[in-house]
Amino acid sequence: EAQVTQNPRYLITVTGKKLTVTCSQNMNHEYMSWYRQDPGLGLRQIYYSMNVEVTDKGDVPEGYKVSRKEKRNFPLILESPSPNQTSLYFCASRKVGVNEQYFGPGTRLTVT
Amino acid sequence: AQRVTQPEKLLSVFKGAPVELKCNYSYSGSPELFWYVQYSRQRLQLLLRHISRESIKGFTADLNKGETSFHLKKPFAQEEDSAMYYCALGLGDSWGKLQFGAGTQVVVTP
Fold it and tell me: Which of A57, A60, A65, A101 is most buried (most C-beta within 10 Å)?
């Protein structure tokens, strides 16, 4: 089944404790993105990647890192999480030339 | 700068009534518009894209370049239409992203 998976789905952590949210897609898509969803703000892009080893900042990259060592994986790294990063995070992928994005199930992160 | 505006945060309609979700955009290039839907506790999924001019689940949307709008309409709302709806603007391959509106929560009551 073609899909985008994320892990973990739920995470509660404390300020400053490094964490990684994984994202994987099995559709051989070139593009992958991370978004955060906040009430009243919709979805805002954090980082995106156009292919292996090619990443760029989205609208709200501060406090986040990403890497793209393999085509299928695009982990989101929070080196020192803060409470303002409490949010619902979505990973998405798409194929070159096709603007439709496929979304993962979301990761609800709470930073206390 | 590109922007997507959804002026209504919440739309409450009765079952069987028409529903229209407004979406306006600003973009200097050639726009590609989408509607995504998120049902409770589920992932976002594509509902409509302006290119295909299709009707999905009774919903339609027409791109009006003169008014820079892409409103979503359904003549008879159903309870299962209750969800969060996002209008999104595709910015092309060089950007690799969608610009989303803030979303409109639709609640259909019996």
Answer: A101
How many angstroms separate the CA atoms of B98 and B3, rounded?
A: 10
Q: Answer yes or no: are the C-beta atoms of A13 and A112 closer than 8 Å.
A: yes
The string of pLDDT tens digits covering residues A85-101 is: 999 999 999 888 776 78
CA A95 to chain centroid, in Å, comes to 17
DSSP bridge pairs for A54: A51
Q: What is the separation of C-alpha A58 from the centre of its chain, rounded to a whole number of angstroms?
A: 11
Is B108 within 8 Å of B13 (Cβ atoms)?
A: yes
Identify all chain B residues contacting A50, using CB atoms and an 8 Å cutoff: 93, 96
Tokens of B11: 């739309």
Partners of B97 on chain A (C-beta within 8 Å) are: 33, 45, 48, 58
CB contact under 8 A, B96 and A31: yes
